[in-house]
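FW: tagging you since you asked about this chain on Friday. Here's the raw sequence from the shared folder, copied in full. Didn't touch anything.
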Amino acid sequence: MRCAQGLLREVLCKLRWKPAPFSAAILLSTPGPDKTGRLATVPGFWPLFLAVAVALLGLGVISPVLPLYMRAFGAGGLELGLVFAAFAVARFLGGPLFGRLSDRVARKPLILTGLGLYALVSVAYALAQSLWQIGLLRLVQGLASTLVTPQAQAYVAERTPPGREGRTLNLFYTAQFVGMGLGPILGGGLAEHFGLTAPFYAMGLLTVAALLAVAFLVPMEGRAPGERRRPRPPWRAVLAQRELWAIVAYMGTRGFWRQAFNAFFPLLAAEKGLGETMIGTVLTLYFVGESVFQIPAGYLADLLPPRPQVLLGGMLATVPLFFVPVVTAPWAVALLSLLMGVASAFGRGSIIVVRTQLGRRFGMGTVTGVQDAAFASGQSLGPTLAGAAYSLAGAEAPLFLSGCLGLLGALLAALLVAPLPAKPKTCPRCN
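HL: got it, structure written out here
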């Protein structure tokens, strides 16, 4: 009890002692080397923000048209599933591989390579002549994504000073929401007015713009004269870290229940008589809650130890899955979806801080790549196992299964991250 009171007093003291306007400048900067109050921004932040947003925008642009495009080649349900699974499989394999490589070489060339592959794949989609070509392109696109998003996160994380990981990196994380949110709208509009191949060309043009921004505006990493490259810890040492398995448990189960909810909630909603507009509203509210509260979650993660935020955020995000099948009022379902998004932001906000602190010791690219692979594995297994539950027990079963695994993942992650300090540090102004 005294520990909790001391921690609360320290947090409140910090909030009074260092008041800061809640703005992008504060979230991106740290006090300068002198005491004049000048702020030094994270180098290359906004061009990389653009690159990640465009990478996710490209995925979102083609998401509403790719199934229709494949159907024109005679694809059935099995072929659709295999092509979409190829992307997650590529991320699972490429995340640790390219993350480890980025700790050995500069990250900027890998990011540029990934964006170049994105641009080529975009045009190749429009020129594809068969299903196997589309499947191969989807696999290459998945590998390209592991060269862009996790490497950009590692680049920014490496340049973020200690104590500001939460606010800076959670702001950077919102680039993914920009892409995921705008992509389907843009893709659907282009396909409706200009044909099914138009979104692929749009994806290519946007990627080229991001590539040029990174090439000319992001500084190349380098070492000072005479500085030796830091040796990489062996995989055995990396895999022995409890915090790494906390990240795997949280992100793997989150990928599972998030993808299962996206796939099977519409089927449950249709059985309840909800229309397409309400289904879209429910799915959108999750995204709104997550995107709006991601930055406040990062700010809080800089003030609190990770365990309570991971536990409460992870559990509160999955508890609504048990209630969605039993509530009947549409507004209640929408409210539960919003709660899932808000709580998910707070849990992940602290996990990002844990990942960054671990990456400083064992390689930022390595740890970020493992996180990406864990999330991809959950995305792959989620629809598969949830689909089996749907076949065996009906439309409610996937959500109950997802809720159980989500609670288990949150509990495991909270147990594996660093515990609360035995004695909170006191603030000089409080004495």
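FW: Strands lie at 29-31, 39-41.
HL: agreed, and Residues 235-421 form a domain with the Growth Hormone; Chain: A; fold (CATH 1.20.1250.20).
FW: great, closing this out.
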